[in-house]
Write a structure and sequence with these properties.
With 730 residues, this protein is of the alpha+beta class. It is built from 13 helices and 42 strands. α9 runs antiparallel to α10.
Length: 730
């Protein structure tokens, strides 16, 4: 009997074990749990319906529970159907037997779903702000996801949910301009963290890779960090205008080609405000193309319409109130490649900067200083300083170095209205285009400045002053100051040198109120230049023992020799009345005058003018300037061979209108000698032979002048009067 009982017990246990194993591994198919699961799901939301097929039930003996799994289920919410691949539920046997909420866990694996539908469903489960954001920015795409939900004893979802999955062909619109399409990534989401891996994005045909993006929630703030990689990204003008030119309107960028590695982190508060943003970027800028909108040909003679920055290695570090940008690479401003380095550091309201440009084979010049870079030498340009927002801009250093040539400016300061507050200290030491040595210092002393040195070439500075297009004052200084001069040698040009230049100038409201400069030529003959502002008028004088260095600058006069120059001018308002006198000089060639003489059949004098030259004893011109108009009241020149009287006007670059009288000296002598008594005294009784004079007119645009000539038999009283005045003087 005991043996029978023992065998029955063993058999029963075996059957139970087999049944337990069968129920645990294979399970049974039943619909007994369908209504229970559907009812408990509706406790999440009454509008949430679950269409279940038959459920495979397996026993979980170790956790005293039941695992229920269904395949091909539909989740319906307000007539929206979400296709579910599988649903696995964990049911507490104890709760089920006690007729309480028996669903402890649920695992949902979806079929490929439209992302927006899934996000809407997730917002039902947990109305978290991140799902609201996702619902707004996600346009399309498909997702396959696994959801794990846990329930408490009262049927409420615990905050321990987990969502894993992948997204394919997603599309996000952050703003109207920024559309991201073809988004693929893997994600993991729980109550306190979002983690995305292998994010691949196509934006305007450019690939963006984010290997990892993590968002952790702490005290209602999301701390977000990640890495971003771009490869061979090509941005055209339209895209650049969206990303860059909205903030840097002065940049005219046509194209950018680059790759980059970026690390970022920031915080996002409950109001979706970004806080504590940090960015670290390593950028390989293959090429950036900018349109040149600056007039730089006077410095870079072969500068292009488009500027290229190539092979740039750029590091960017951004943290609240601190930004650092540094880079090095190639730059193509002209025909050949140059090198550039730069650093920009921003700390709150202060920006510090440093730029070094190495010009290798390209040309470089500074016309006003007559400086030109040698063809095969290397030139280094440095700009460094700081800019305090709403205060001032300080150039700690602006320097040019080419072998032994140095031009250096230190502590040049601009105010916030872009005017100069302080010229700082300037030092120049170089050999210029004419092989003349320039050695000069510009040093600040108290509120004024001292210019001193051994030599300086002012040829191009004089040319610039003489060719100034208008009389507008140079409104670039904020303060009044004086400049004192003490320079040993000053070159007017290669052939004419001034010694011991001394004097001063006073600048008042951006105009020279007083100037007094004196120097000597090599023969101790002097030159003096003065300006005196008397309130309602400004008087300018210039006397030079040598007129040639100034007259030679006018290209229509050739072979000017000897003579001294005396200039006097009074300016009232915008009208300047001037008198220019040159005595005892000779001219070899004046093309216009030679043409006049030829047209008048005064061929002998015309030949003389283009050969050995004609001597003049006196030249005087009275004229006035107002804006672009020069009015010549009278130009009179007298010499042993010829005399000229002329008047008219010149409208710069538009119109020339001149008329006058041109008479050989023999005719003048004969005419004057016929005047009773006066003629005998001034000329004598012997009358020379000669032809009559001519009157002439010259009119038209500067490049298309028309000249007319008419013979005259009688000289005008004005001509005779002016000639008599000059003869008496001589």
């Amino acid at each position: 009997m005991i043996k029978i009982t023992f065998k029955l017990l063993i058999s029963l246990i075996s059957i139970l074990l087999i049944l337990l194993v069968y129920l645990s591994i294979i399970g049974v198919t039943t619909d007994k749990f369908n209504s229970k699961i559907a009812t408990q799901i509706q406790q999440i939301d009454p509008n949430l319906n679950l269409k279940l097929n038959s459920v495979i039930v397996k026993l979980d003996p170790f956790n005293f529970g039941i695992n229920a799994k269904t395949i091909g289920t539909d989740l319906v919410y307000r007539n929206k159907v979400i296709n579910i691949e599988t649903i696995e539920s964990k049911i507490s046997i104890k709760s089920f037997l006690n007729d309480k909420f028996s669903l402890t866990e649920i695992f949902i694996s979806t079929k490929p779903l439209v992302i927006k539908d899934l996000v809407t469903f997730l917002r039902l489960l947990n109305n978290d702000p991140k799902f609201f954001i996702a619902e707004k920015v996600i346009n399309k795409g498909y997702v396959i996801a696994d959801l794990k939900l846990e329930f408490d004893e009262s049927g409420k979802i615990k905050k321990t949910y987990q969502i894993n999955g992948l997204v394919k062909d997603g599309k996000i619109n952050l703003f109207e301009e920024y559309n991201f399409k073809k988004i693929d990534f893997i994600f993991k989401i729980n109550q306190n963290a979002l983690k995305f891996n292998d994010i691949k994005i196509i934006q305007d045909n450019n690939n963006i890779l984010i290997p990892e993006l993590v968002a952790n929630k702490q005290n209602n703030v999301f701390k977000i960090s990640g890495n971003l990689i771009t490869q061979d990204t090509n941005l055209k003008r339209k895209q650049i205008n969206r990303f860059i030119n909205n903030y840097f309107n002065e940049l005219d960028i046509n194209e950018i080609l680059f790759s980059s590695k970026n690390y970022f982190k920031f915080e996002l508060n409950e109001n979706f405000k970004i806080l504590n943003l940090e960015i670290k970027s390593n950028i390989n800028l293959d090429s950036i193309k900018l349109r040149n909108s600056y007039e730089l040909k006077k410095i870079f003679p072969e500068i292009k319409k488009n500027l290229f920055f190539k092979n740039q290695k750029i590091d960017i570090k951004y943290k609240k109130n601190n930004t650092t940008i540094s880079g090095i690479g190639d730059v193509i401003l002209q025909n050949e490649i140059d090198k550039i380095e730069y650093e920009i550091y921003k700390n709150k309201d202060e920006i510090k900067f440093y730029t070094k440009l190495n010009i290798l084979k390209n040309p470089f010049k500074i016309d006003i200083l007559n400086f030109i870079k040698k063809k095969d030498s290397e030139l280094e340009l440095i700009f460094s300083g700081k800019n305090t927002i709403k205060k001032n801009l300080v150039f700690n250093e602006i320097s040019l170095k080419e072998k032994n040539n140095i031009i250096s400016i230190k502590n040049l300061t601009f105010s916030n209205n872009n005017k100069i507050d302080d010229l700082g200290n300037i030092k120049i030491k170089y050999s210029d285009k004419d092989d003349l040595k320039n050695n000069l210092e510009f040093i600040k002393k108290n509120r004024n400045y001292l210019v001193s040195g051994s030599s300086f070439n002012i040829k191009n500075i004089i040319d610039k002053l003489l060719n100034t297009k208008n009389n507008k004052k140079l409104n670039i200084f904020n303060k009044n100051f004086k400049v004192f001069f003490d320079v040993k040698n000053v070159y007017l040009n290669k052939e004419n040198t001034l010694n011991d230049l001394k004097g001063f100038l006073s600048l008042n409201k951006n105009e020279i109120s007083e100037l007094n400069l004196e120097a000597n030529f090599s023969n101790q003959k002097n030159i003096k230049f003065t300006i005196k502002d008397k309130g309602n008028e400004k008087i300018t004088t210039l006397y030079s023992y040598k007129a040639k260095p100034f007259v030679d600058r006018y290209k229509f006069i050739k072979g000017f020799e000897e003579g001294d120059l005396d200039f006097y001018s009074i300016k009232k308002g915008d009208i300047k009345n001037s008198t220019l006198k040159i005595d005892n000089f000779k001219i070899q060639e004046i093309p216009v005058l030679a043409k006049l003489l030829t047209l008048a059949s005064l061929q002998g004098i015309a030949d003389l003018l283009t050969g050995e030259g004609i001597r003049f004893t006196d030249f005087e011109m009275k004229f006035s300037n107002q804006n672009e108009l020069m009015t010549i009241q009278e130009l009179y020149a007298i010499g042993p061979a010829i005399s000229i009287l002329m008047e008219g006007y010149i409208q710069k670059k538009k119109l020339i209108s001149l008329r006058g009288t041109l008479v050989p000296a023999t005719t003048i002598n004969r005419t004057i000698s016929s005047i009773p008594l006066i003629g005998d005294i001034l000329v004598g009784k012997k009358v020379g032979e000669g032809v009559f004079g001519v009157s002439f007119k010259i009119k038209g645009p500067p490049d298309n002048l028309e000249t007319t000539v008419n013979p005259i038999k009688t000289l005008t009283p004005r001509f005779i009067t002016r000639t008599l005045e000059k003869i008496k003087k001589n």
